[in-house]
Design goal:
This protein has 414 residues and is an alpha/beta fold. It has 18 helices and 5 strands.
């Protein structure tokens, strides 16, 4: 498989550095103004950590503002860990804690009506300097984008961009908009109307007996609605799902050949020019740590790792995911579906006990003996209906992969 993707340049004309950043944001999924807001926030926090941690005037202003808000208290630590460690964040968070502690101590010592007033003082949000800077940057970017929209290329980009509701409202907040702006507003409103129709069709096709009628466009509408109304979520598994993204999960008992087939599928798709990534789910949860749960029954870290890989690969341009994993219960498939947030086809490799024994017996890895016992039990047990398409996994790998690609209607021929 290819080990990288080509770097693309924006098609939008840019004359200043700010225009370049904004043009880049339009080339990526999701609300471009939210991306610009995130970039401005990161740049500001990194500048604080690099230059202002020990700056007395800044620290005095931070104290007067009562520190950072909840979101930026976490964000400043994340930014510091990305660049160096946590010392700078620790100093700033200590400066944030001190005024809040003074307020709580005053509340604790007060009584009667005075206590109620002290509670109000301690409960009000801080005048977070990061929030103020991001809001100022946000307003400037919105105003600059409106001016850029006079150019035909930018006008088309603004009219078709998936803005969140907050930024869309800011863009249409024009007291005397020019005549050409009305067409942009109408196209954005039509986008919202169309999204509502797609959500209706998704709900209609969500019954068990109609789920096979769901289209990738309908599935993607749910995430688009959440991003529109709530803004992009933070953390792993939150990159908006492109309408053309899809995934296939190759499952089966241990020793069925899931990983081998997944690699063959990914290689064939890659050779055909498909932007594809292969992920072995079992490896995402292979660790030893003093945790209070069983990763097989409660795959918390496996799913978190999968969510992170999903985001990373989508940002890189991947649109087809080939997953391999021993999803032994229908609930396991649904967990994977919930993380991927895109149409997921499930293929189950059917093999008999003799093949499993031949593949797992004598394996140099000690854990494979336990896998053999589990696989034999699973073969004897009554299989729950997980909606998977069964395919004969005893055939040569190339034949199995070709059958899967044909069944899914995916091109695997260069």
């Amino acid at each position: 498989m290819a080990k990288g993707t080509n770097v693309t340049t924006s098609r939008l004309p840019a004359r200043t550095g700010a225009d370049v950043h904004l043009a880049d944001a339009f080339e990526r999924p999701g609300c471009p103004l939210c991306r610009e807001r995130d970039r401005a926030e990161s740049a500001y926090l990194e500048a604080i950590l690099a230059e202002s941690v020990n700056d007395v005037p800044f620290r005095e202003a931070l104290d007067a503002a009562r520190g950072f808000c909840a979101a930026h208290s976490r964000a400043v630590l994340d930014a510091d860990r990305r660049r160096a460690g946590s010392l700078g964040a620790g100093i700033l968070l200590r400066a944030t804690l001190r005024p809040r502690l003074r307020e709580l101590e005053a509340m604790h010592a007060a009584g009667g009506w005075s206590r109620a007033r002290r509670v109000g003082d301690a409960s009000r949000p801080p005048a977070c300097p990061a929030c103020r800077r991001v809001a100022e940057s946000d307003a400037a970017v919105v105003e600059g984008l409106v001016q850029l929209a006079e150019q035909p290329a930018w006008s088309e980009a603004v009219a078709s961009a998936p803005f969140c509701i907050e930024h869309l409202a800011a863009l249409v907040d024009r007291r005397s908009p020019p005549a050409w702006w009305a067409a942009i507003e109408e196209r954005q409103l039509q986008r919202l109307r169309t999204l509502g129709d797609r959500l209706d069709r998704f709900a209609h096709a969500s019954a068990h007996d109609r789920r096979h009628l769901q289209t990738p466009d309908q599935v993607a509408s749910v995430d688009e609605a959440a991003d529109l109304l709530g803004g992009p979520a933070r953390g792993a598994g939150t990159v908006p799902t492109p309408g053309d993204a899809r995934a296939v999960l190759v499952t089966g008992v241990y020793g069925a050949g899931k990983t081998t087939v997944a690699v063959e599928l990914a290689d064939r798709l890659d050779a055909a020019g498909v932007a594809v990534a292969a992920i072995d789910l079992d490896w995402l949860g292979w660790y030893s740590a003093p945790v209070a749960w069983d990763e097989h029954d409660d795959p918390r870290l496996t799913l978190r790792n999968l969510a992170a890989l999903r985001d990373t690969y989508l940002d890189a341009g991947v649109r087809t995911f080939v997953l391999a994993g021993a999803a032994r219960e229908p609930s396991a498939v649904e967990r994977v579906r919930g993380v991927m947030r895109m149409p997921l086809d499930v293929v189950r490799l059917e093999v008999d006990a003799a093949i499993v024994r031949s593949r797992l017996t004598g394996d140099p890895n000690a854990s494979r003996a336990e896998d053999l016992e589990t696989a034999l039990r699973d073969l004897e047990a009554e299989r729950p209906d997980d909606g998977a398409w069964p395919v004969d996994g005893s055939r040569p790998t190339g034949e199995v992969a070709a059958a899967i690609l044909e069944h899914l209607g995916m091109s695997g021929t260069p």
